[in-house]
Amino acid sequence: MTENSNETLTPAPRRSVPLWAQILVWIGLLGLLVILAIGLLRTQQGTIQAGQVVDDFELAFFDGYDYNGQETVNLSDLRGKVVVVNFWASWCKPCEQEAADLEEAWRYYEPTGEVVFLGVDYVDTEPEARSYLAKFEITFPNGADRGTKISQYFRIEGVPETYFIDRQGVLREIQTGPFQSTQDIIEIVDALLAEE
Amino acid sequence: MLPDFGYGILLVTFLLSLYSIGAAIYGEVTRTFRWVETARRAMLLTFPLITVSTFVLMYLLATGHYEIQYVYSVTNNSMPLYLKLTALWGGQPGSLLFWAWLLSAFTSAVTLRKWDRDREFLPWVVVVASVTLAFFLALIIFFENPFWRWFLAPGSEQPILAMIQPAGTQAILPGDGQGLNPLLRHPGMIIHPPMLYLGFVAFVVPFAFAIAALVTGRTDDRWIRITRRWTLWAWLLLSLGLVLGARWAYDVLGWGGYWGWDPVEIAAFMPWLTGTAFLHSVMIQEKRGMLKQWNMLLIILTYDLVIFGTFLTRSGVLSSVHAFAQSAIGPMFFAFIGLTLVTSVALLIWRWPSLKAEVEMKSMLSREALFLLNNLLFIGILIVCFWGVIFPLISELVTGQKVTVGPPFYERATAPIFGALMALMAIAPLSAWGHSTVKTLGRAIWKPAVVALVAPVMMVIAGFVNVVALIGFYLVALVVFVTLYEFWRGARARQKAQGENFFAALWTLAGRNRRRYGGYIIHISMVLMAIGILGIEVYQTETQQSLAIGDSIELAGYTVHYDSLAQFQHTDGRWVTRAEVSVFKDGRFLQTLAPRYDVYPDGQPMTIPGLRSTLADDLYVVLVNWEGVSASVAPFKVYHNPLVNWLWIGSIIFILGMLVAAWPEKDTEAVAVRNRKAASAGIQAM
Amino acid sequence: MKQVKKKKFFRFLFFVLLLTAGFSLFAPPSVKVVAQQPTPSDDDVNAIARKLYCPVCENTPLDVCPTQACKQWREEIRLRLAQGWTEEEILQYFVDQYGARVLAEPPRTGLNWLAYIVPPVAFLLGAYILFRAMRSWRALANQPVEAEPPVVEEKDEYVSRLEEELRKRG
Asked: Which chains touch B (3 or more CB pairs under 8 A)?
């Protein structure tokens, strides 16, 4: 500590806020508001919006499930096909309502090879998930959402939720809550299949 | 039509508050006091008007007008009248109206004070208060209207909410409502929100005066003197709101605790922190003419944290599963926070040079220095809380992954700060304004410091060796001794000089300097609360076990014996599952407890613990319904919460201290003048 | 003069140390080791569950969360305990399975360090600013004192003020 520093410590009687401090204050304030604004925007939007290209994700299947013999699948491998991503959980009562409809729709499309159903099991435990799958005789590929990464990407608001992705990998339709009938699913998928 | 009438009144009030903003500014700019006066009267009118509107809604709630969506969503036929009335703040739209009502009560009351000596403040106080009120009224009128009825368009399932029936629609006329969320049907929850809201809205008054002082440039301590009691009352009500919330959580959630560091709790806690810091630091400004800039900053922070907290809890930003998630009021709140924060900070920076201190600090150990340290510590806790609340947002933004910031984070960071605050509470009363040295302070503190060692020594002898607890209870003892010693010293001095008896001396002493001795009582109440917090944080034990009838659980010397289970339907439709357990200690029967859980018709469960509460400990027995209860085997969870009762005892003492400090004196203006003269002469009574 | 500065510096250091000492003293007690049992009791399960947060009910600790999902999680813990897993392994399993959000606080990795660094840095910065401000105020206040009245008189004034205060009360 020198005499010099002592002098700088003595404030002038009427000193305004130094410019750098003002700039810092405003940057800090602005940063805070921006964070809040983005957080708010996300909340307001809810799930990701239809019309955007869905980022790639990887889904590892439960034992006994596969897609073309593979134990995992990447969304990017499914370009050119219509993808139906269904979020569910064994503890979710409404999911049970639509389980049979989903399976029926899958069996309807499976022979064509044009449509892929992916069951993503959200925040679930494996034994219960397996008995759920067995109970509803679900055959389309299902796997756990490891690290809740997929559901966080889609920003799902609950289960069940179903996302329809077209051949170009663009999210087209979102169904929140259970489907009322198999026909509901088929209508959406057929519309996407009709596109080239 | 009654709802239209209530709504119309709200519209009129909204226009009236817009008018008072305009008239106040116009009057100020053109220097025509007549306009300012009309603005004041317009603001005065808002309270009776919103009162009418609120009563209309309460009437609708009480009489089951389910054609109104809000009434449908929070009441039903089986609710008792008092719950129907308090359902006013049981949902978003109603609680906004309630908030606006309380706000108008405060702002109207403030217009009634004698303004003769503070004419220049009046227009700006009116502007700030009216802007705040207009904002809340706009939210109610345009976004969350409790008077909206609902209609169904043919072929649509989505009801339309509107005041006027849209063409071609059918009004929905349900015969019964949904009823209030069962968690809110608790006495604690009935008083807790009003207290919290009152505390929140009361802080608008000091904020309005602070802004007025900034705008007019009258930056002496006048605004602080005017708002001193307002601030005290705001702080009292906010504190009570927090304590009642804690008590509600303890009684209703069945978690065995009272505070979970939930973002919603923290949102209400943050303005309390800045408010408490403000309460302390204004004293330095009054006594020493220092910290003007800092006090401005604190009151601005407090006001915006109030709005921010409301925003966090109502906009759904924090948790997407929140019921209000889709509410449109989020962006409005955001805009309002941005507007008020930017405006007030800009004002503060503009006036910064004229807020320089009049007197300078002489010693790092003087009382003002210790007050500053106190402020630093409170702001430290605020930083931890704020960062903990905001960090998950940042994390999600940057990495796309959510994180949880929970109790361990807050406890680790704030516990040492709370400890340091307690140490300050012990030291500060012994230091003097202006000048203290290590020597004078050391001489004052060594005796109580030694005497207080009794507490940890006794604990060690009794076999309690937890370091946190030892330090904590030492500090508790120290604060109690120092504070009692301060009372004793003052009263003794008076007794000697005046020949009064000791208690009479004590009475006049506390009466003469109410803020000081009220403050000391509050300090005592705080350390009493600290006893409860230390007890539960350090020594809480718990056990869970499934019992067949006739089995028992042992915990902390208690035996909880499972006697019987009954299931029945209550008249209001909920299913009650109620166990009876006998509590024994050392083989001696103490009491029968009845933990239970209720399942409401809408499926929502509610867990009510069986509670045996003494000064030494609480035994908290929960019927763990979520693990499945059957007549033969029922899972019980037993918590042993030592000393937790002192938390509630402390809060009662707290109210006492607050009443001593804040009760209106006969002539506040005269007292203020006297104090100022004393201050300028350098002779302080404090 | 230099000596005085040094003293001031040490006083600041002391002030900082006092606060940091407080931090370390109030550090949480070390993690208890879960007793291995053939059939894990509810208490063993809850001891781990209370450190976890299920994404289904945010901000509610797992040991008191009433949802079905949480119940299944607790059974999962019981299962792993029965298989002889340690607490650390189980916590890690849940993190792998459901993401870091299940922990009561962010794991100390990458960006999450910000959560732990920012508050103490901000606090110390505040302490430093306060210290600087107080020192500069005192420097100002002491300037005239050096010229005219000696410190002793200052003290006398203080004593007499105290006495006056007591007299006024009496």
From this structure: A, C
CA distance B508 to C168: 12
Contact (CB, 8 A) for B128 and B207 = yes
Residue A85 has which token pair?
């991503």
Please state, in angstroms and rounded to a whole number, the distance separating the CA atoms of residues B121 and A173.
57
What average pLDDT does chain B have?
86
Q: What is the dihedral of CA B157, B163, B166, B169, to 10 degrees?
A: 40
Per residue in C3-14, pLDDT (tens digit) is 444 455 445 444
Predicted confidence (pLDDT) per residue in B27-47, tens digit: 999 988 899 999 999 999 999
pLDDT interval class at B1 (50, 70, 90): confident
- Would residue B155 be called left, alpha or beta, if left means φ above 0 and alpha means ψ between -120 and 50 degrees? left
Residue in A9, A125, A148 closest to C72 by CB: A125
- Look at residue B632 and give its three-state secondary structure: coil
User: pLDDT band for position B360 (50/70/90)?
Assistant: low
Contact at 8 Å (CB) between B36 and B28? yes
Least confident range from B17-31, B199-213, B487-501: namely B487-501
- Asked if C22 and B414 count as a contact pair (C-beta separation under 8 A), the reply is no
* Closest Cβ–Cβ partner in C11, C102, C141 for B362: C141
pLDDT at C31 over 50: no
Name the maximum alpha-carbon separation found in chain B: 88
Contact present, B527 and B520 (Cβ < 8 Å): no
Confirm or reject contact between A125 and chain C (CB < 8 A): yes
- Residue B7 has a pLDDT of 93
Tell me, yes or no, if A27 comes closer than 8 A to chain B by beta carbon. Answer: no
What is the enclosing helix (H) or strand (E) of B113?
none
Pick the closest to residue B285 from B375, B217, B349 (CA basis).
B375
* A22: chain B residues, CB-CB within 8 Å: 349
Residue A29: Cβ within 10 Å count: 14
Q: Please state, in angstroms and rounded to a whole number, the distance separating the CA atoms of residues B136 and B103.
A: 9
C-alpha–C-alpha distance, residues C170 and C167, integer Å: 5
Q: How far apart are CA B324 and CA A161, in angstroms?
A: 20
Shortest CB distance from A17 goes to which of B330, B352, B396? B352
Q: For residue range B166-216, list pLDDT tens digits in order.
A: 877 888 888 888 888 777 777 777 888 888 899 999 999 999 999 999 999
Say yes or no for a CB contact (<8 Å) between A11 and C136: yes
Q: Is the pLDDT of residue B316 over 50?
A: yes
What are the pLDDT digits (tens) for B610-660? 999 999 999 999 988 766 777 778 889 999 999 999 999 999 999 899 888
The number of beta carbons lying within 10 Å of the beta carbon of residue B125 is 31
Contact C66 B497 (CB under 8 A): no
A148/C68 Cβ within 8 A: no
Residue of C nearest to B635 (CA): C42
- The answer to whether the Cβ–Cβ distance between C72 and A124 falls below 8 Å is yes
Phi-psi region of C110 (alpha: psi -120 to 50; beta: other; left: phi over 0): left
**Residue B340 in tokens:** 């008020």
B residues 512..551 contacting C (CB < 8 A): 512, 542-546
Residue B671 pLDDT: 46
Return left, alpha or beta for A36; rule: phi > 0 is left, psi -120 to 50 is alpha, else beta: alpha
**A131 lies within 8 A of chain C by CB:** no
To probe the interface with A, which of B314, B333, B334 has the most A CB atoms within 10 Å? B334
* pTM, rounded to two decimals: 0.87
CB proximity list for B189: less than 8 A, separation 6 or greater: B183, B248, B252
Residue C64, min C-alpha distance to chain B (Å)? 6
Q: Is A4 exposed, middle or buried (0-12, 13-18, 19+ CB in 10 A)?
A: exposed
